Amino acid sequence: MGRLSVYHSGQEPLVKLGELTPGSTLQGFEEKKSYLIKADAGTSRLYVDDALLPMDAENEFWLWSPGFYAGEVEVQLEQQGKHVPTRFLIDVAPARHKTGREQYTEYIGQIADYVPQLLAGTEPAKHGLGGRSNSKLSLWISYARFRCYIDRYLKGLRSVSEWPIVRLNHQREQLPIHLVRRVDVTTVRRLSANPKLLGVLAHHHAEPLDTVIENNRLDAPFNEPTQDNAANRVIARQLDRVLRRTSKLIESFANYKDSSGDTESDILSRIPRRLEYLAEVRKRLLKLSRNKPFSAANKSKSSVAGLNAVSGNPHYNVTVHAQ
Predict the structure, then answer these.
(1) What integer is the mean pLDDT of 44-49?
(2) What's 37's DSSP letter?
(3) What is the pTM of this model?
């Protein structure tokens, strides 16, 4: 199913609000109002902000009423036989008697610049705050940001894995003469320490080469491609931090204690689904971390060159900013 029809509740005949379509945002929702979402004939389940929606008595519609201003909210349709849910976005506006959306957004921005902690609260709604989540911000805001950016981040990691930056590692090795493909000034300089071999190579001695076979190695340069470079180290270290962040969110939700009366939303009913989602993301991150170039990077080394290399590569630059 690619679309879901949405109707205003409590009106006869039903007035259609619009259709939920993957990849686009349906507007027109308002807090404290009720809506009907047309159900399919199968055994599908519909979630809004990880909360399972109930159905009417005839199992014809899903019932939903946004109880608070939430801005943009994700809707997920789970269908039998499909591993990946279909995702939709809806935009919920504040009730008409409240401050207008533009003015409200301006207020929120001013508060976020002044004291962002005031916006955290205990309600699992979200607003698009700038900056980075930290321990002082709400668990709900941290999770909302994680959900907002993790898909782009995973896509970026896959692009980096498919088109990694490869650099040449310049090394030297003692090689038999017949295996030497390249010489440089250092090779010639060190060859001067073996006059007999130098004479044979220059045809100044009548001795055949096999007479100096025991000492016929040259110090030769060679270049070996490697993925252990500055750019890959930056991404690998960032991937480690994202993994730790994911594990921290899992731990926080697993140990969450409900505070009666703190919220209007049923938080505990959302937690199992969020834990399942986080565990799946962590599994995907771990799998990527074990692949090259991330597994080949020496994360103990760091330099400014890594940031320069990342900013100059579209796959790496997108990955860093997605996080």
Answers:
(1) 88
(2) E
(3) 0.67
